[in-house]
Structure prediction request, 454 residues.
Amino acid sequence: MPALSLNDLLAFGLCVLALVALGMNLLVHRKHPYSGLRHTSAVRSTEILSQAAAEQGKRLTIGLGLDVADSTTAMASLPVLAALTRRSIFTDQPVRAASGGGTLACLSQSVVRGTYQGAVTPELFKPDYALLAGLSPYAYLAGLLPQAASRANAGVILYGPHRPESVLAVDLVERKGNPVIVLTSDLSAQAVLLASSAQLSLGEDFFDSGASLEVNPSAAAALRAQDLLRIVITVGLILGAVLRLLGVWQ
Amino acid sequence: MKKAIPILIAGLSGLLVLVALIWQPQLAGWLEVVLNWAVIIASVAALVAMATLLLAHTRKIIMVRHGFIYSVILIGAFLVSFVGGMTAGVENPSYLRWIAAIQQPAEASLLGLAALVMAAAALRLFHQRGWSALTVSFGISALVFLVLGLGWLQALQIPQLDIVIGYLEALPLVGMRGLLIGMGLGALLLGLRIVLGLERPYGE
Prediction:
């Protein structure tokens, strides 16, 4: 068995550390998983927007971004889709989701259908509630634009890996006078959308949805573990820089 | 039991990929097999998603709902591309040229439009978000990197200035790495939660 390289060992160590931190936080905070937890304002705003949509008798459109094959971070948006769908089942206009790929479209369809079944109302589910918008990034954008511009919308949420071109959809929604919330894992898109009036989440806040909406205790434990690991990595980076500066580690 | 099987499959395949990425020489064969399965499943998922989309638009046409004409265009374009691909073959140069002749101008025009909207949004930034540390630093950095991107300062060939420019050009990379570490940690923990069955993005 050949020896592992330093990078492999570090990756393995980080995985084990993440696992330990996750388990530890799940155990320690099992009674009050969400107490004292920081909330991401953009995620909380999705909840407020969902309530506003229900009051206006309008719907929310969620753009789930590019496919899972393009970016695994697409998975992070599905718990929010489930949470917002659950809250809109008995409203006039349930949540609509648009996906940028086949796998994500199937997953979103499965999530929405499962949510309706979980609420014992499978007869209210329609396949139109979670559809494919396009199979490539531009096709997705072209499919998203008419949905974002719909007069039936109370607002639009772009949650998932979106590219900088999504500024077109954001601009369109703004022109319609509707609010738009963007949570994306793409750093270039975050930088571009900073210039728009969209409510935006920066950095890794994208992964905080389950914890901020208080729908999954493991998400809260993951957020705490993430903070812990960030401290460990920061200390490691500083230590590495100091050691290299002193010539101890080449 | 019905719920446990998908969790078990998702967990085991996720764990195998994770372990195979670290012990690549030993598990490369298995990794290839699992990734091939993933590609096949993703292709089937794309077909299912397309079929659902076509059914939704067909229903829209039958019920003559508002905007049904766009559904007619979508189904028409799909059928023409599908029949063309099936008869001529998807590798046929004429078929590929024909698809590219439609797709590339459409994509280029969307990109051009996006560039214009981005420029307009940057100009409206201070009006919309007000004067804050974030907007001011955003404006200054945009201006600095715009000037650096022009290459005029580099053309002066002053050694001291080149050192300063080198440092400035490294700054976005440093910031990006910081953000990427956070994103990486988030993705790692999300992956672990899926592998352990604590997060089930594939349904309730």
